[in-house]
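Researcher: We plan to redesign the surface later, but first we want a full-length starting point. Tokens attached.
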């Protein structure tokens, strides 16, 4: 297997790293953190102009036809700058679900708008009692003569406050009662009966909780033909975990580089910290963890379109391993910076907070070690 980047992938990495280095400094991040929107619409427009919003969208819908590896390259660069734009919510989750589940008319109506930056999405699936079980959905969609009535609540919806439309999962109830199937609905953010309460996420960006109080939707709000969407949801979340893993790698690499530079200039007893052999060993351990995490993120991206069990095991393995690597690198960086590491004067703390948020999003390391083991048992012959 050739793991070297193609010429196009190298150009994507270079352009993304250059853009992030020039645009995302400490002042920009502080300004964005204090903005109620949580990101910059002007930067989102630049993402569209650079073609990043069209990257994974099929070419027939004004996209570039990229895949999970290209998304991973972009997300690693985003991690270096703590980018807070709703890329995962709109592109990695929202656009992917519409492309996977939507009808041709729904794709034509939404995907070109996503590519040009005029339509932002969010995915509302997690519920308070689900405990990371993607199959556990209590939100209901009741079929009516006019269309659908949605009732229920969702939590931890990434960038839902800024979305133009929210993809909501719900248990389908037809005229004969519960169907046992999960459906996905495109709900306008301005729909009557939709209540959104947003809050800042740890490490930057925003999320929200959503209440659906008998929201009325037309028949065509249901994505696709009403087949069970659970497999598509699992597929999309696995791809999102691969993308977030790549972002975590970018964050860890920045912490490693920052800590290495700091230990070269910070002196104790007349010598730089990096002259201490114990410090060198700790830096070497950090570098090893970063490389291991990068390998796991790439593996998850390469297996994103493989058969479901193989894809899911790779995604859970990456989420679990990168979560542990991220915590180690973050803690070592904080400690090696001493008391300065926990002050707002340095950005080490902000990067560490984003890594903590990564470890809990879509399930922590313990959950995914368990999921990986369970999936492994299902592949064994009886």
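Model: Full-length starting sequence:
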């Amino acid at each position: 297997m050739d793991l070297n980047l193609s010429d196009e992938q190298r150009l994507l990495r270079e352009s993304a790293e250059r853009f992030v280095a020039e645009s995302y400094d400490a002042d920009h991040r502080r300004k964005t953190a204090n903005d109620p929107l949580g990101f910059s619409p002007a930067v989102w427009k630049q993402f569209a102009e650079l073609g990043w919003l069209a990257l994974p969208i099929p070419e027939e819908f004004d996209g570039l036809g990229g895949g999970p590896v290209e998304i991973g390259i972009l997300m690693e660069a985003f991690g270096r700058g703590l980018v807070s734009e709703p890329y995962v919510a709109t592109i990695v989750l929202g656009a992917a679900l519409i492309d996977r589940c939507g009808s041709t008319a729904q794709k034509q109506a939404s995907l070109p708008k996503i590519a040009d930056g005029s339509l932002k999405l969010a995915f509302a699936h997690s519920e308070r009692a689900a405990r990371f079980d993607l199959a556990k959905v209590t939100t209901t969609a009741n079929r009516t003569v006019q269309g659908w009535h949605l009732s229920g609540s969702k939590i931890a919806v990434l960038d839902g406050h800024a979305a133009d439309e929210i993809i909501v999962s719900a248990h389908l109830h037809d005229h004969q009662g519960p169907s046992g199937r999960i459906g996905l609905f495109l709900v306008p953010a301005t729909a009557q009966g939709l209540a959104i309460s947003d809050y800042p996420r740890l490490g930057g960006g925003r999320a929200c909780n959503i209440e659906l109080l008998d929201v009325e939707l037309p028949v065509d709000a249901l994505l696709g033909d009403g087949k069970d969407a659970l497999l598509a949801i699992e597929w999309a979340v696995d791809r999102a975990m691969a993308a977030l893993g790549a972002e975590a790698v970018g964050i860890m690499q920045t912490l490693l580089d920052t800590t290495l530079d700091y230990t070269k200039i910070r002196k104790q007893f007349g010598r730089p910290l990096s002259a201490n052999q114990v410090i060198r060993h700790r830096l070497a351990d950090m570098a090893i963890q970063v490389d291991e995490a990068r390998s796991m993120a790439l593996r998850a991206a390469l297996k994103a379109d493989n058969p479901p069990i193989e894809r899911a095991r790779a995604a859970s393995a990456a989420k679990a391993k990168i979560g542990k690597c991220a915590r180690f690198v973050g803690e070592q960086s904080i400690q090696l910076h001493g008391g300065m590491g926990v002050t707002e004067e340095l950005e080490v703390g902000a990067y560490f907070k984003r890594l903590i948020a990564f470890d809990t999003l879509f399930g922590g390391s313990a959950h995914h070690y368990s999921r990986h083991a369970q999936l492994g048992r299902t592949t064994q012959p009886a």
